[in-house]
Design a protein that fits this description.
Elements (H helix, E strand, L loop, with lengths): L3 E4 L6 E3 L1 H16 L5 H17 L7 H9 L11 H11 L7 E3 L3 H10 L3 E4 L7 H10 L11 E2 L12 H10 L7 E5 L2 H11 L2 E4 L14 E2 L5 H7 L12 H18 L16 H25 L4 E2 L7 H4 L7 H19 L4 H4 L2 E4 L3 E4 H24 L1
Parallel strand pairs: 1-4, 1-6, 4-5, 6-7, 7-8, 9-10
Antiparallel strand pairs: 2-3, 10-11
């Protein structure tokens, strides 16, 4: 059975002296950009941009957009004017930082075994760096992306969240089309890798030689990376199936959906159908927009404002034809869906536990709660992203 394996990079696949790495990186970047950006202020705004990326929960802006908006306005230069200088830095200077890292024995052998066994391998590193920098770090680990067919590598170019946001892990899985198969997050950092992945509902493997896990966290598995193959071969894959049920998990899925759709659809045709009886991507986006605006938001507002309200049934699937979705602008529908989804998240983001248990009576589901209905919304997201994924890869 195929297992989706999410791997942290630093200290999991690559031995990185993070203190020396960050110091060297900042020093060399400052020197390279000195003719354009004063070194004495670069560090200040580099850290500001990084902090804003770490804090961002905005599904409508990539991490690169967040960083650029908090960095370049402080200097008399725009990104495009020094783009060649930045590209030169990542092509020719960044690779010299390799000296503060070293490969971890057994990593290459394990990754080759994982691909040979038919597993899906993802590089789930916190996306603070552009693609070129992350690809260099993979080469330092002995895992050049030109050689190994990683299903996804997270970088700041097109990701919207960092670790330890639970939405980061949801965005990874949404970008993979929400696979219905066992999933395992492998990492060394309990706070950054394991707790948020577990909060989403994923199985975890603590890839360090310590017992017990830090902070009292009990990972699904634990041991050196060299022991992971044997552990996987002895583990029933059914025990690694994800479970998306907590309120934090549901919110992460809802938050990740517009972000993942934006990245998935960046350069794709939207109106073609895989078959005559299936929706196009544009029809899916229009459907998600209208359901969010006309069904989900009013329903949540009603449950929060009324005691045990009756929720009538609606038939939004018919709208694809009656509203002629395929004649509409799919990307405009996505933008409107994103705006509506942010409104939904604002309503749900700070609810007390008791509010998640508020009751309602649904015309089809019968007695229900806000949590259960939001769970249906999250499942609705996952099903339509699977549908988009199938459409784009058919």
């Amino acid at each position: 059975m195929t297992i989706t394996l999410l791997f942290d990079l630093d200290e999991t696949l690559l031995d990185t002296n993070l203190t020396a790495f960050v110091q060297t990186y900042f020093q060399k970047l400052a020197a390279h950009l000195a003719p354009h950006v004063p070194p004495e202020t670069l560090l200040k705004y580099l850290m500001l941009g990084t902090r804003q990326m770490m804090a961002s929960e905005d599904p409508s802006h990539t991490l690169r957009e967040v960083f650029d908006g908090n960095f370049y306005p402080h200097f008399d230069v725009d990104r495009e004017s020094i783009a060649p200088v930045i590209e030169d830095f990542y092509d020719n200077v960044f690779p010299t930082i390799r000296e503060v890292t070293k490969p971890i024995p057994g990593v290459v052998e394990f990754i080759e075994w994982a691909f040979g066994a038919g597993h899906r391998v993802v590089i789930a590193t916190s996306p603070y760096f552009p693609r070129k920098a992350t690809y260099h770090r993979l080469r330092w680990a002995g895992l050049p992306p030109e050689k190994y067919p990683f299903a996804l590598i997270s970088t700041y170019d097109d990701f919207h969240f960092t670790k330890p946001h639970v939405a980061y892990f949801a965005e990874v899985l949404a970008r993979l089309g929400w696979p219905d198969e066992p999933i395992l997050m492998v990492g060394n950092d309990v706070e950054q890798d394991l707790i948020p992945a577990s909060t989403l509902g994923l199985a975890t493997y603590h890839a360090v030689d310590v017992t017990p896990s830090a902070n009292g966290f009990n990972a699904t598995g634990r041991g050196r990376l060299a022991e992971l193959r044997a552990w996987l071969e002895q583990t029933d894959p059914a025990t690694l199936m994800p479970s998306y049920s907590s309120s934090a998990s549901l919110l992460a899925i809802l938050r990740s959906t517009p972000a993942a759709l934006t990245s998935l659809l960046a350069s794709e045709a939207l109106t073609s159908r895989p078959s005559a009886d299936e929706w196009s991507v544009t029809e899916i986006l229009c459907h998600m927009r209208d359901v969010e605006q006309e069904v989900d938001i009013p329903r949540i507002q009603t449950i929060l404002n009324e005691d045990e309200p009756f929720i009538p049934a609606q038939l939004p699937d018919e709208w694809a034809k009656t509203r002629e979705y395929n004649k509409q602008d799919g990307l405009s529908a996505l933008r409107d869906f994103t705006t509506a989804r942010i409104q939904t998240l604002e309503m749900l983001g700070n609810l007390a536990p008791a509010q998640w248990s508020r009751k309602a009576r649904h015309a089809i589901f019968g007695p229900t709660t806000l949590r259960e209905l939001v769970g249906f919304n999250a499942e609705h997201d996952r099903l339509h992203i699977q549908q988009v994924w199938k459409n784009l890869h058919s």
